[in-house]
Amino acid sequence: MEKKRCLKTAVSVVAVLLALAPAVLRAEDARVELGTGLFGVSYVRESNGDATATWTMIGVPNPMGIVTPTVYAAIFVTPKFAIEPQLGLTYVSTSFDCDGCSGDSESVTALSGGVQGDFFFRGKETASPYAFGRGMVIYASQTDEDSITRTLVGVGAGYRIPFKKGGVLRVDARYDHMFAKGDENDRDFSPSGNFVTVTLSLGIAF
Fold first, then answer.
1. Of these four, 13, 114, 129, 202, which has the most CB atoms within 10 Å of its CB?
2. At residue 166, what are phi and psi to the nearest 5 degrees?
3. pTM
4. Following CA atoms 46, 159, 15, 136 in sequence, which dihedral angle do they give, to the nearest 10 degrees?
């Protein structure tokens, strides 16, 4: 059931991109905004049957970069609507020393890519509240472990402030749901998770 849901989500994201691509290419007033997160806080809740785990991530420039984009590119299809590809990368390496494990090390690499649709209520030329929805795929690999791919969808709202010379400041809050993967009885089962994130981002529009 979860696999079918993940597949439907991925197909829906691709379909939206294909449908909007001609409009992006035709838009005479299209502009691009490139940016990255400056500061972020994420609250994560992961559920597996009766067991629940929660944790908080605080990061500068971003909390990990797993569900928050390391970089984004907002392509304005109209003055009020933008398609926003997002890319995140996280790499963590650890080493430890103990009896019988001298020199052992582990690493985790997580690469995330997604597409977000932004609607700016007052347009792109002035300070404006905005709402958005998105889909994202996360690929993660760990030393001596099988790699996994996870899918999430999310919604949120924020405030965008353009300033002189093309600078843009954004603050937003988002809710993301990560779908479970596999069967609960499988060794490689990955439970579902919920993320609540607040991010401050800086961009440049041209």
1. 114
2. 85, 5
3. 0.76
4. -30
55's enclosing H/E stretch is: strand 51-59
Backbone phi, psi, residue 89, to 5°: -140, 130
CB within 8 A of 83, min separation 6: which ones?
17, 20, 24, 74, 75, 77, 115, 116, 117, 118
First-to-last alpha carbon distance for the chain, in angstroms, is: 43
Q: How many domains does the chain have?
A: 1
- Whether 76 is in a domain gets the answer yes
Q: Which residue has the higher pLDDT, 156 or 7?
A: 156
- 127, part of any domain: no
Structure tokens at 95: 């080493």
In a domain, 135, yes or no: no
57-83 exposure pattern, b = at least 16 Cβ within 10 A, e = fewer: bebebbbbbbbbbbbbbbbbbeeebbb
Structural domain includes residue 79: yes
Residue-wise burial string across 122-143, b where 16 or more C-beta atoms lie within 10 A, e elsewhere: eebeeebebebebbbbbebeee
pLDDT at 31: 86
Identify the CA nearest to 45 among candidates 148, 186, 178: 178
